[in-house]
């Protein structure tokens, strides 16, 4: 395997000059640069990424920690992050803790030990805060939420607005009996979406029925169980706000099992606009989270933080919007 010393010997220059050309760390004349690069190509020289990272004190690597994986929303965000990392010549190390506090702690330690240039942190688990003791001293961006106080840039979704828009859409279609299947209300996102639901009902002067509020989790099974609970009520809602598309998918299945159809017997609006939503039968009306924009903004913000570590932390808010499809019926006056 060729080394810088081999290149320097053949090009008849110093090893330091070869290093400056390859690493771009000092001005070298065009003539000298081309002479050295010709030898580099001839020897098919491949610089050591490890040695380069030690020299430049950068690994061109970003770590991303996600605490849950059973929701396709996260997979789509990760795909966007990977794409924008590649566009900026960065590698991505992804770790998934599945809500396990020990795995979270060890994953953070692993990423820091690997000397990643920065961290993207995406958490959904409130119970992790008590067990998390590792301080994060490298550039970081929080995506949506993190269980402990952290000096970092934050990119948040206006989840209360999203809950408000979803409920308002159902109201605009003539529905007044509107149920909701939430996520775990210990999670800020779930509570915010519920608050948005309550705000829209209050604004429309529609009484709140506590029996139509079902606390659940952001997964498929919870949609199944949540819809079963709503169907057991003496008076059923005509429409349901499922606080994630995964909940909506489970709700669809429960309605199918009861030989009920969407939207004839029950209207449903979801949240997230995962790719699967448009392929359901009927296609799911949902609140769109700008996942590609979230991934792009997270990478760009982190790279800016890596370049300017002393810059004041920022909080950026992404706005949701309703995507109208065929799962909500319009009721006559």
From TrEMBL:
One Pfam match: Peripla_BP_3
SUPFAM superfamilies referenced in this protein's UniProt entry, alphabetically: lambda repressor-like DNA-binding domains (SSF47413), Periplasmic binding protein-like I (SSF53822)
Keyword set, alphabetical order: DNA-binding, Repressor, Transcription, Transcription regulation
UniProt keyword annotation of DNA-binding present: yes
GO function terms (MF aspect): DNA-binding transcription factor activity; transcription cis-regulatory region binding
Every HTH lacI-type domain range: 2-56
Parts of the chain that traverse the membrane: none
Protein name as it appears in the record: Ribose operon repressor
């Amino acid at each position: 395997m060729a080394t810088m010393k081999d290149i320097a010997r053949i090009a008849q220059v110093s090893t330091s000059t070869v290093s400056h050309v390859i690493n771009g760390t000092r001005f070298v004349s065009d003539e000298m640069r081309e002479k050295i690069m010709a030898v580099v190509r001839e020897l098919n020289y491949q610089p050591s990424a490890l040695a380069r990272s030690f020299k430049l004190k950068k690994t061109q690597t970003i770590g991303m920690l996600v605490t849950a994986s059973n929701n396709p929303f996260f997979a789509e965000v990760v795909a966007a992050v990977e794409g924008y990392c590649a566009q900026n010549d960065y590698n991505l190390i992804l770790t998934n803790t599945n809500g396990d506090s020990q795995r979270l702690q060890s994953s953070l330690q692993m990423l820091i030990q690997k000397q990643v240039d920065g961290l993207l942190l995406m958490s959904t688990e409130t119970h992790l805060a008590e067990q998390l003791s590792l301080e994060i001293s490298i550039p970081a961006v929080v995506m949506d939420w993190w269980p402990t106080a952290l000096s970092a840039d934050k990119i948040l979704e206006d989840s209360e607005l999203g809950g408000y828009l979803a409920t308002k859409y159902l109201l605009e279609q003539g529905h007044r009996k509107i149920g909701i299947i939430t996520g775990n209300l210990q999670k800020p996102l779930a509570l915010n979406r519920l608050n948005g639901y309550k705000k829209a009902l209050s604004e429309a002067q529609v009484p709140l029925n506590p029996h139509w509020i079902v606390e659940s989790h952001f997964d498929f099974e919870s949609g199944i169980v949540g819809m079963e609970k709503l169907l057991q009520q003496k008076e059923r809602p005509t429409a349901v706000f499922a606080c994630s598309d995964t909940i909506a998918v489970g709700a669809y299945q429960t309605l199918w099992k009861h030989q009920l159809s969407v939207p004839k017997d029950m209207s449903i609006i979801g949240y997230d606009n995962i790719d699967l939503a448009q392929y359901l039968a009927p296609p799911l009306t949902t609140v769109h989270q700008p996942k590609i924009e979230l991934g792009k903004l997270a990478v760009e913000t982190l790279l800016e933080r890596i370049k300017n570590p002393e810059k004041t932390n920022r909080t950026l808010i992404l706005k949701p919007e309703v995507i109208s499809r065929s799962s909500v019926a319009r009721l006559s006056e």
